[in-house]
Design a protein that fits this description.
Number of helices: 16
Number of domains: 2
Number of strands: 0
Largest sheet: none
Distance between the termini: 58 Å
Order of helices and strands: HHHHHHHHHHHHHHHH
Length: 410
């Protein structure tokens, strides 16, 4: 079920809101939480009900592991807490790898060894990357004793809350769990209703009017990459750069708006990233919750910047390489992560020279790097991306639009 679908806007959302606040008005707060869990699971299973058991098993498994990790009693345990944490993370990653990467691995094994192992052709469950990362963070924080024990109902609501379930933002238990228990959030708040409706409309406009319009040009261009000349290639790449921002940012705005209708504040996920003056600033403004996750649960555990400089550069590079692979199963995503990891390393080395470029130059370099890297993110294959980049560099020829020659001197 899409946020911009009629069934969501005119049926699912208003009915869910009405029943939720009706139950809270009757002081049936536990029932209202259960309702949110049920409608969220219904929302998730609308696309394919056969994956409903997957998310339910994932919730029960991670809740059990997390509860065990955050126990404060010193009773004797058959396994060390470190072993329980590692087990929980491995199970989550294996589940993610099976559904998202198994055919990618098979394809590469076939290429390298010349075998013909058949593909499994698994349909990727919606939102699996997001609810997997959310729950891995929960396990790590439970191990660090940075959280208290929660009921299964509260935990289920934290994971499944439908505004963020399919495409983020990636939420953290500290910023969410307490909001579901606040009594002031159980009654209709006209200010939040107004805020939520405005955000939803803005997000809907970004998605339907702007992003979908740019999608026409980018889709056509990437389907005919080998024929694109200079201006056409730049039109295609810039169209996708705009499409992915307004699509993802629009979806996030809709998610934040819907959540505010329930008096729940989700974290901001975008902050004008294309205005960034360097690649580090870009990642502080683009998909902010993913950047936070990569910093707290990949970069810092690797050693962060509290180690030798060479190791710091390695930590940066690996973090973004993993981030690229997280986005999708393909060498194009690996290359995208490789480029951003390399850019972060280069920027850190550049700062040591203590040379400040004019702001317009810094913006120009940053934006065009991001734009070029998006080509790999969108392309069907590495060769498809190379064809677009060849067009952008003029290697496929430069043909001026028909109206320009009349303005040029003869």
């Amino acid at each position: 079920m899409l946020f911009n679908s009629y069934v969501f806007i005119f049926l699912f959302l208003p009915v869910s809101l009405f029943v939720y606040f009706f139950l809270n008005r009757k002081r049936l707060t536990t029932a209202s939480k259960a309702l949110l869990v049920l409608v969220s699971l219904f929302f998730y299973s609308w696309w394919n009900v056969k994956y409903l058991p997957l998310i339910m098993i994932s919730i029960i498994f991670n809740y059990s592991i997390g509860t065990e990790l955050c126990r404060t009693t010193k009773r004797k345990m058959p396994f060390k807490r470190e072993e329980i944490l590692v087990f929980g993370i491995i199970v989550n990653l294996l589940c993610l790898a099976y559904f998202k990467y198994v055919d990618f691995f098979i394809a590469n094994i076939n290429i390298l060894s010349g075998t013909k192992i058949p593909f499994i052709n698994i349909i990727l469950p919606l939102g699996i990357s997001f609810f997997t990362f959310t729950q891995i963070a929960f396990l790590v924080d439970a191990y660090r004793r940075e959280m208290k024990e929660y009921s299964l109902l509260n935990y289920s609501l934290f994971v499944t809350f439908f505004p963020h379930l399919l495409a983020g933002p990636i939420i953290h238990h500290r910023e969410m769990m307490s909001q579901f228990d606040m009594m002031k959030n159980k009654i209709i708040n006209n200010r939040n209703i107004f805020r939520g409706v405005c955000l939803f409309v803005i997000g809907l406009f970004k998605k339907v009017v702007i992003a979908d319009h740019f999608a026409v040009y980018s889709n056509n261009g990437f389907n005919t990459a080998e024929t694109l000349q200079f201006i056409e290639a730049w039109t295609v790449s810039l169209s996708y750069t705009m499409q992915i921002y307004f699509d993802f940012s629009g979806y996030t705005d809709m998610a934040l708006g819907i959540s505010w209708l329930f008096n729940i504040g989700l974290p901001i996920n975008f902050n004008s990233p294309y205005k960034s003056l360097n690649i580090q600033e870009f990642w502080r403004k683009w998909h902010i919750t993913l950047s936070r996750f990569m910093r707290d649960y990949i970069y810092i555990p690797l050693g962060g910047n509290l180690t030798q400089e060479l190791r710091v550069l390695f930590n940066l590079f690996i973090t973004f390489l993993i981030g690229g692979l997280w986005h999708g199963a393909g060498w194009t995503f690996v290359m995208w992560g490789f480029l951003h990891g390399s850019a972060m390393v280069a920027f850190r080395l550049w700062r040591r020279l203590n040379i400040n470029l004019p702001k317009v130059v810094s913006w120009f370099i940053t934006f065009n790097f991001v734009n070029a890297a998006w080509v790999f993110f969108r392309a069907k294959s590495l060769s498809n991306a190379v064809q677009i980049l060849k067009g952008m560099t003029g290697l496929n020829g430069i043909v001026l639009p028909s109206f320009l020659p009349s303005f040029l001197p003869s």
